[in-house]
Design a protein that fits this description.
By secondary structure, the protein is an all-alpha fold. It has ten helices and no strands. It is about 75% helix and about 0% strand.
Length: about 190
Amino acid sequence: MGRASKREDIAQAAFRQFHARGFNATGINDITQAAGVPKGSFYNHFSSKEESAVEALNRYAATLRFDMLAASDRPPLERLRAHFEFLSKDTVENGFVRGCLVGNFGAEVADHNEEIRAAVNRGFGRWGEGIQHVLVEAQEAGDLDGELDAEATALFILSAWEGTLIAARAGKSAAPVDAFFRTVFDVVLG
């Protein structure tokens, strides 16, 4: 029987290291040490640190619970709020560290690496489309002003969320999170 591939261990370790430390502060040695494999094993599974970062973004997207946006078990705006409540709980419970890996990479690496910039852009695009779909559903249900530009509002909500995470991390405070919920759900979508 052949030995098990270490790709999963390496990919998971890269995801954790990038999320905790950022792209530039994470080296291949950090990843392989966290995975408990020799450095050469990294290159058996990934051609570059950038490739492992794109994989980390894909893994991160799987944790964002986009399924909450698409579920039809409750009204659209309740699903949208539940999605952001889920994300805010993670932020608060983790002591306002790490933030959003997509936003972190967007701020740290997007100007310097086309592969990661494109992956970040795809991630934000997918997320924004999910939010936009919920807003359109809410409009069709009569729960949201039909004149509201759903695409622009989705972009605004996503951008506001990313700014919220930065402010919450900088201040080690839930105040920006509270402001996000009040402004987005009580004012913009109220």
